[in-house]
From TrEMBL:
Reaction(s) catalysed (UniProt annotation): (2R)-3-phosphoglycerate + NAD(+) = 3-phosphooxypyruvate + NADH + H(+)
Family according to the record: Belongs to the D-isomer specific 2-hydroxyacid dehydrogenase family.
Name used for this protein in its record: D-3-phosphoglycerate dehydrogenase
InterPro entries from the UniProt entry: ACT-like_dom_sf, ACT_dom, ASB_dom_sf, D-isomer_2_OHA_DH_cat_dom, D-isomer_DH_CS, D-isomer_DH_NAD-bd, NAD(P)-bd_dom_sf, PGDH
Protein's gene: serA
EC class: oxidoreductase
Amino acid sequence: MRYRVLVSDPLAEEGLDTLKEFCDLDIKTGLTEDQLVDIIGDYDALLVRSGTEVTARVIEAGKRLKFIGRAGAGVDNIDTEAATRKGIIVANAPEGNTLAATEHTMAMMLALARNIPQANASVKKGEWKRSKFMGVELNEKVLGIVGFGRIGREVAKRAQAMEMKCIAYDPFISSERAASLGVEMVTLEDLFRRADVITVHTPLIKETHHMINAGAIATMKDGVRLVNCARGGIVDEKALADGIASGKVAGAALDVFESEPPTDSPVIGLEQVIVTPHLGASTVEAQKNVAISIANQCISVLSGGSAKYVVNAPVVPMEQQALIEPYARLAQKMGRLLIQLIEGRLEAIDVTYGGEAANLPNTKFITRMILKGMLDPILQVPVNLVNAEFVAKERGIRLSETTTEEAQGFRNIITITARTDRMTETVSGSVSSPNRARIVSIGGYMTDLTPTGHVVISRHTDKPGVIGKVATILGRTNVNIAGMQVGRHRPGEEALMVLTVDSPVPPEAMEEIKRVDGIHTAKYAEI
Ligand SMILES: NC(=O)C1=CN([C@@H]2O[C@H](COP(=O)(O)OP(=O)(O)OC[C@H]3O[C@@H](n4cnc5c(N)ncnc54)[C@H](O)[C@@H]3O)[C@@H](O)[C@H]2O)C=CC1
Ligand SMILES: O=C(O)C(=O)COP(=O)(O)O
């Protein structure tokens, strides 16, 4: 069966061509939310730009949806929380349009300083008003950059070339990193106080919504100029209009608006405000980049792989993949085994990374693989890397992750303890080489089990005859025993037996095994 992919905003041909080879592609732009809700149930993936609002309703109706791709950077038009709940991967293409947005910011800043759009309109009307459009130089002015990420940094480089003094505010970037680019990191208050021009380059999130508001504007320099090529909503348009009316703000350049198109924004009609219709990413080069990136990520996810820029799941960087993969594979198998060994209502899962495993760069990813291994087989909802933690939390399962140098004689060890309202069970595993991983203990008893295939795991009193009786039952049921290990702490006390078998063990045989004199518990599991 070929996958069906819906593209609901204009995407460059280069990306569409790649997709067409892989899936059945429908391109339907300009859909209302209701129209999207009506059709989304037929699709495995949805690819958008900023024009489509991917709401919780749309996601709920997307019964087959596995992937939502954003051909660009900002994902504020996608309800990622709703997608996460449903285990749908959301990815973006954040690098492809960085330079396009940067150059647009520079163009807007220069146009603002020299009144170019206003002068252009005036000349085209037949006027010749040279003194009306007196501008200011950017040379030696202070540029305040709010948000020093990909675009903020590229803007700084170009502004420095024009001899502007760049200062920046970004709570998640170190002063050293900024200093290495010749940029001074300052507080937001300082930035507002010192900058001649302020340009914002943050995502639109709770913390940045109306970051540029009336209170902030009041603390800025008289005659400040504002540029927003990031997201509408970072600047409070009403406060900006008031700031311009009072003369506090000399002008503003806006590519993005609180509501797009900005039909009733108070700033649109103002002479001092220059605007473009969200064109930051609209270059041939950027559109080609983001379309190809999102098409490739979509194909990879639908083919069972991962995506490079997933925004709602932990991502393992390429350079870590070879290191992490054997642990992740083992962890999922351990989780799968453990869930089959426990009884009762699962209340808590504790994961301990010991020895070299404690220093792994991405234990969060491995822990999610454990949750996937444990929860996916038993729940109706698909559990994957995206929603594993959410699903556990929703079910009230407490999750803890600890690290320790202690590795119990192994180079590395991962121990998972599951607590239910009736019991506690533990499984430990270790990776000895990229291709060799073992389950090294169950319930505190040493074992050496390849994590694959069918197993019978029992606890019994260590006395003659018990093992023989179990073997006889399996033989009678035509189940061949491929391997046997018995672990015990002291002769005559409880022992743990792990039998690897070549085929599934019928439930009746398991019942019979449980009735054998000396057997305490017996479980059949598929790993
Ligand atoms: N107009 C357009 O067409 C385009 C707009 N954009 C928008 O530009 C913005 C920046 O994009 P990128 O640089 O690629 O993103 P990025 O993720 O590389 O950088 C964003 C920066 O904002 C910082 N930040 C987060 N919260 C902050 C806060 N409360 N205060 C200050 N800084 C904060 C982050 O630490 C990060 O360094 C985004 O909103 C994106 O959607 C991006 C491309 C095109
Ligand atoms: O990438 C971004 O964040 C953008 O704002 C670009 O939006 P667009 O893809 O041009 O609708």
